[in-house]
Amino acid sequence: KGKDIKKYYYKYDDLWLIHSHTGIREKYKAIDIPNKYPKIYNFLRAINKKTDKAIEKRTDKGKHWTNLRNCAFIDFFDKEKIIWALTSNKWGFCLDNEKYFLTSGAFFLISEEIPIKFILAVLNSKLMQFYFSAIGVMTAGGAYTLKKTTIERFTLPFVEEKEINDIIEKTNEIIRLKNIDINTDIKKIESQIDKLMFKNYGLTEKEINIVNDKTNY
After folding, report:
1. 25 pLDDT tier (thresholds 50, 70, 90)
2. Beta-carbon neighbour count of residue 200 at 10 Å?
3. 68 bridge partner residues
4. Of 17-31, 48-62, 88-102, 184-198, which gets the smallest average pLDDT?
5. What is the average per-residue pLDDT within 43-49?
6. What single string gives the DSSP state of each residue in 91-123?
7. Do residues 66 and 20 lie in contact, with contact meaning Cβ atoms separated by under 8 Å?
8. Residue 204 has pLDDT above 90, yes or no
9. 3-state secondary structure of 90
10. SS (H, E, C) the chain
11. pLDDT tens digit string along 152-203?
């Protein structure tokens, strides 16, 4: 869920999806729940009966009422991806390489050309947090509304391969530390990444001071 996604880490609440898909552009055939998975079918049938056939009556079902509706990007969930919450009290994006599915309260991003951990570092930087204040929307309670259309407006800097590798190395260290203890203080490493971002986006000292004054970890 979106609420489980934090900056550089996520909380896993042991929730599971019955992935009874209805196929994907002829690549997969619809899963035959009634005949191949009778225990799951009986489980769903009990819920259906208890809810006055709400599952069966829904409009977004697949070929059979036990099937999920078609999803053209099912395979994307299996890829290494950046995930983030639609609404969050704190600025934060996280890497997922465990093939998790997301609820509608979260988004994800994949990349096959640009190193995804480099993109993750850019998104988590102070500079992007500051830029959001100019183009994004906050809720009435002061939370970030990280819409897909807003994040798509972010730009990536042109960075030398050596520095990209340096940023990725620092990002790996942050992820490693967070995997050990989510309460680990990573401000020092984040500050090092931010300095590289300021440099590669061409900020002046005055502009850097403005960003630092208007953002926090």
Report:
1. low
2. 18
3. 61
4. 17-31
5. 96
6. ---EEE-S-----TTEEEE--SSS-HHHHHHHH
7. yes
8. yes
9. coil
10. CHHHECCCCECCCCCCCCCCCCCCCCCCCCCCHHHHCHHHHHHHHHHHHHCCCHHHHCCCECCCCCCECCCCCHHHHHCCEEEEECEECCCCCEEECCCCCCCCCEEEECCCCCCHHHHHHHHCCHHHHHHHHHHCEECCCCCEECCHHHHCCCCCCCCCHHHHHHHHHHHHHHHHHHHHCCCCCCHHHHHHHHHHHHHHCCCCHHHHHHHHHHCCC
11. 999 999 999 999 999 999 999 999 999 999 999 999 999 999 999 999 999 9
Query: What pLDDT, on the 0 to 100 scale, is given for residue 74?
Result: 85
Closest CA to 128 of 158, 156, 87, 147: 156
Percent of the chain at pLDDT > 90 equals: 83
25: left (phi over 0), alpha (psi -120 to 50) or beta: left
| pTM of the full structure | 0.90
> Alpha-carbon distance 145 to 27, whole Å?
35
For the chain, the farthest-separated pair of C-alpha atoms sits apart, in whole angstroms, at 67
